[in-house]
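Sequence in, structure out. Go.
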Amino acid sequence: MSVYADTGFIVSLYKTETTSARAARIMKRLQAPVWLSQLGELELRNAFHLSVFRSELEADAAARKMRLFLGDMQTGIFSIMPVPAFSLYSKAAELADRHSARLGTRSLDLMHVAAALLLKAETFLSFDERQRKAAKAEGLKVLPHESVRR
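Output:
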């Protein structure tokens, strides 16, 4: 089973959030690797840096979390999958035309759904309700089965 994770899902594995326990339970059931795009890696790095800026984490703690993620990539838990930018933006634009007026999806959320579709993922991991609805509408299996309001 091919699985793509959005950034919020991955962040919850390294930073204590209300969704962290659910994300960990899902990861235990999945076969590695879980895919993410270059966008996901950028957003993950930035999320840790923003946590320092917002005084949610000390700089050394944020760096430690990033090292843990990089270690998990080296052991094959996660894999960054290349997605050509032109294809990604074109697919996200198609998704915007199909879903944003009805679902209120944001551009970056659509880019994650687009990446999952372009990579031919079967399952999409997200806690974002609007993103989950767009992924389901595009035929992806979405986990967890229930959403979390954000």
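Check: The chain has one domain: 3-143. Residues 3-143 form a domain with the Rossmann fold fold (CATH 3.40.50.1010).
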